[in-house]
Amino acid sequence: MARLAQTHGLTDVQQEILSTVRDFVDKEIIPVATELEHRDEYPQRIVDGLKELGLFGLMIPEEYGGLGESLLTYALCVEEIARGWMSVSGIINTHFIVAYMLKQHGTQEQKDTFLPKMALGEVRGAFSMSEPGLGSDVAAITSKAVQDGDEYVLSGQKMWLTNGGTSTLVAVLVRSDEGHSPAEAAAAPHRSMTTFLVEKEPGFGEVRPGLTIPGKIDKMGYKGVDTTELIMDGLRIPANRVLGGTTGRGFYQMMDGVEVGRVNVAARGCGVAQRAFELGIRYAQQRHTFGKQIAQHQAIQFKLAEMATKVEAAHAMMVSAARKKDSGERNDLEAGMAKYLASEYCKEVVEDAFRIHGGYGFSKEYEIERLYREAPMLLIGEGTAEIQKMIIGRRLLEEYRFQG
Q1: Residue 370: closest CA among 359, 362, 378
Q2: Are 237 and 198 in contact (CB under 8 A)?
Q3: Backbone angle region of 321, left / alpha / beta, with phi > 0 → left and psi within -120 to 50 → alpha
Q4: Is 8 exposed, middle or buried (CB count within 10 Å of its CB: 0-12, 13-18, 19+)?
Q5: What confidence tier does 27 reach under pLDDT thresholds 50, 70, 90?
Q6: Known active-site residue 382
Q7: Which of 70, 256, 258, 299 lies at 20 to 30 Å from 391 by C-alpha?
Q8: How far apart, in whole angstroms, are the C-alpha atoms of residue 236 and residue 153?
Q9: Which of 344, 382, 398, 399 is catalytic?
Q10: DSSP H or E segment with residue 383
Q11: Which of 114, 80, 83 has the alpha carbon at shortest distance from 100?
């Protein structure tokens, strides 16, 4: 049916995976998404279905029981899932960031321990950088790890942890200043950060000694998925759970993972925008005013034209960013551009679809009301628009440095 957001050059395997995911979204997610979202209910049956499809192991190498697919395949699957319900794509996003970080930076023992179970969805990943007093200013992290023999003792409070309750493995970024003088740590805070792999039980409250996951944060949108705080108070972690086995590399490991996350957020924006366009163009042909479909009014046609163009442009940029990462090249410029454009265009397409629905768009009976509350999260997640523009601007100055 859809002509928009087609991806050329896909293999038969990629096309088969995407067709399977789209069919699952149409049959298992879209019919129940709004009801579950209004109840803020975790979509357990949907998650179980994703496990059966093997999506939790989509990018995990075959040697660890995964499908060994590319970031592009993953991003296109996320686009389809977000088209059904953005919260479901959030459930797999942090899982994949942690799996990717393990694959790229983990020790062999860490890969052997976690990746096979993550591929099956038996171990579910989450990652944590933000704190109550900071978001994008990662260098200002105050949570810390202090070495005590063969263990580290972690303390501090983290914020905005997606899958905080349902996850069983959390990659946590904290400050670890051993080996650095106070002056060195102050001058280069990024070099004094370490990522720890924290295993825990699912649920809320004290999920292991020294680690508490309070209840879910009540949000405007992005419901169903559990978003929580994480509180560490004397949390003891063995030294073999330092990601990669060496302290001081956490910031760079996390930023590598965030590049994957930004492509994911771009894909989510594309999926939500596609669904908003579908809803808008369908309603425009159902609603009649002044004796004809509102789709026949020039003002509405202009809106549809702008919406479709934005959907197509965002998709193309997201695909380009994913392919750049898959090639092994640095893609922070492309990922930042894709995340920035897709999230901004998503907001605009959703609002235009909302306007096309008129008063009915304000009713909870219509799906566009849910999308209208979900789109703003994409403007913030994995770095605000302002952060993306800072990244883009700095990279452009590197690429186009004037020699005068």
Answers
A1: 362
A2: yes
A3: alpha
A4: exposed
A5: very high
A6: yes
A7: 70
A8: 5
A9: 382
A10: none
A11: 114
